[in-house]
Amino acid sequence: MSxxxxxxxxxxxxxxxxxxxxxxxxxxxxxxxxxIKGDAEDSFSRGHICPKAVALQDIQSDPDRLRQPMRRIGSxxxxxxxxxxFNLVAERLTDIQARHGQNxxxxxxxxxxxxxxxxxxxxxxxxGLLKTRNRFSATSVDQLPHHLTSHLMYGHGLLIPIPDIDxxxxxxxxxxxxxxxxxxxxTVPDVEKRLKAIQRRGGKLVVVDPRRSETAAIADQHLFVxxxxxxxxxxxLLNTLFDEGLTRASHLPVSDLDxxxxxxxxxxxxxxSARCGVPAATIRQLARDFASADKxxxxxxxxxxxxxxxxxxxxxxxxxxxxxxxxxxxxxVLCTEPAVDIVAATSGGHFNRWQSRVSGLPEYSGExxxxxxxxxxxxxxxxxxRALVTVAGNPVLSTPNGRQLEQGLGGLEFMLSLDFYINExxxxxxxxxxxxxxxxxxxxxxxxxxFAVRNVTRFNExxxxxxxxxxxxxxxFVGLAKAFAAHTGAELKPTMAPEQMIDMGLRFGPYGxxxxxxxxLAALREQPHGLDLGxxxxxxxxxxxxxxxxxxxxxALLLADLQRFADAPAGNPEQLLLIGRRHVRSNNSxxxxxxxxxxxxxxxxxxxxxxxxxxxxxxxxxxxxxxxxVGSLEVEVASSSDMMPGVVxxxxxxxxxxxxxxxxxxxxxxxxxxNDLTDERQLDALSGNAALNGxxxxxxxx
Length: 702
Ligand SMILES: Nc1nc2c(c(=O)[nH]1)N[C@H]1C(S)=C(S)[C@@H](COP(=O)(O)OP(=O)(O)OC[C@H]3O[C@@H](n4cnc5c(=O)[nH]c(N)nc54)[C@H](O)[C@@H]3O)O[C@H]1N2
Ligand SMILES: Nc1nc2c(c(=O)[nH]1)N[C@H]1C(S)=C(S)[C@@H](COP(=O)(O)OP(=O)(O)OC[C@H]3O[C@@H](n4cnc5c(=O)[nH]c(N)nc54)[C@H](O)[C@@H]3O)O[C@H]1N2
Ligand code: SF4
Ligand SMILES: [Mo]
Description:
binds ligand MGD; seven-stranded mixed sheet; Dimethylsulfoxide Reductase, domain 2; Barwin-like endoglucanases; alpha/beta; 26 helices; binds molybdenum atom
């Protein structure tokens, strides 16, 4: 028996915590994981870990995990070889494109695409060959408003200011629950300690959320907001800052701030109060508290992005930071200077250059809103989607109106999934190609180093040798690309391994060959606990990518959206509204098949305020029927005085009882899918992002 200690980051979520993993090899050379712990020597995560990291060993040993290509014949699955599989894909996709055009093949890329660097570096090596405009991803059920806002204001969709959590005196969080999610577009391992440190420094934490979330529970102040109406609260805050002379000059070059000042003039706290449900005096006081803090952060995340005015909300968040003098300021919000600097290396993206065929939804940087995916499959005519490639995604459980998408998937001529499970989505595939597991491949975080609250970098070695006959995601893309190119006669440029690309990115980056750091892949390999490159610093003026190198404070599209918001009818206060939630033991839809994460009391219930239960004659714990415009489901209801009256909460990512799903543990406690209720027509009309929060529902006894 020989034991080895490995150090690498967990890349299951955005926090990228350092881990210490012990493995043991037996006499026959079989390697087992003995323990997974937080790495106390990691200067960024300081030993922090959550239960999901310990479950990495369960992913490794899960008998339901696929290890070889699988082809579906009716309801039976048969193993086949890689080359046969690649040729089958090439044959089917080229045939469908020859008959129906290139756009007949669609692509959906899911969330792990940004958590596994081979999916980042190599997906386009194959998917680019498809030359389809029908590209979709989880971006449009998540952070699209952040990208669009940064694209319009700062000239690059990835130039997103990050809360300087370690130096701020005042943190205002809207629609984020970092105590459950471990932070998002704010890579911050150990977030609870860092939030409590704000309070220990004498600062304040304020949370705006229709549920008294885990984060709200540790806050100095929690405000309930009517779901989907944060724009009203944010308008009221911005208006108060101007109205009461609470603004502070910025050192940054800014265009059109006066246009913002006049556009927001009518949106007083008093006018906005009824819409958001927050008293005008509270809005005004919050603006004063925010402005009187020396250093303050306004941060809006998932809960405010996935609503009807998601992009407007993100713009207002940026403006509040800007006019209060907290944009690009230590203790406010700052842009990173990552070791592999994608912002510097790429152009800023584009918006609305083309639209989806059926509903005319706008593209953003080559992707269409995923809410349109099902209708593009189900609506006949030229350009109809006939085939789909899913990569690391489960859109049946994660995109609005999952039942409608199931109908679309059932009618496809061909579907390929790159995934290691037969889940709610991939069960429709004709072919599933499973990559190696998270500990079997190396990893460099191009995305989350760039969103981190410090400038950090590390290279993560594989912990386990990949089993013979298995392929990494990037190798699957290379195999697919070669087979496809051979079929079409397309020219295929040579490629290199992801680690070589990272080596180049590091050398050309700000800490590379031309700097004192001389960072390279080889140098990083010497740093198993990662490397801290220092705190975030003011750098936005130099990083702006707008044509005139100034911040566009008042993009025409957003001024128009402010008017759309003003014109929108106020919601009916009697209407029950649905929101989502996350739990620290979950990871979207795909980590319910590990006993250690799902054991204990169930976590998939509908939460409802006790008064709302009484009003409907419902009892805590009973099964209820929840209905929306698009569908209905049954689930147990749990009474919770943490809910805002008139609001119910159901987590997404459940609903594993569907026929053909091969996830034994998840099926034993299947829950119901919130996205059987969310509405594909309920969107942030500007960006096309799905409005997953604030869905009108009815709840009745089942
Ligand atoms: N109602 C509601 N809906 C939501 C949300 C919500 O809050 N409420 N949240 C939204 C958000 S923020 C997101 S990001 C989306 C997520 O939506 P998706 O990305 O569509 O869903 P996931 O559950 O993350 O699915 C990940 C899939 O990738 C597979 N996988 C894991 N690792 C790898 C890998 O390394 N390689 C490959 N090839 N496959 C892998 C898993 O088996 C799983 O099938 O859901 C969205 N949907
Ligand atoms: N444990 C765990 N961690 C995760 C994930 C997971 O599934 N599980 N998913 C990962 C992913 S893909 C992402 S994108 C991040 C997301 O990370 P966060 O953005 O922190 O998302 P949530 O934890 O869903 O918190 C959203 C909060 O918004 C609130 N909310 C809902 N509607 C509204 C509204 O209208 N207004 C306001 N102000 N608040 C509202 C909800 O009650 C909830 O508390 O988490 C990541 N981390
Ligand atoms: S918070 Fe948990 S899942 Fe996220 S990186 Fe850290 S250990 Fe992994
Ligand atoms: Mo997400």
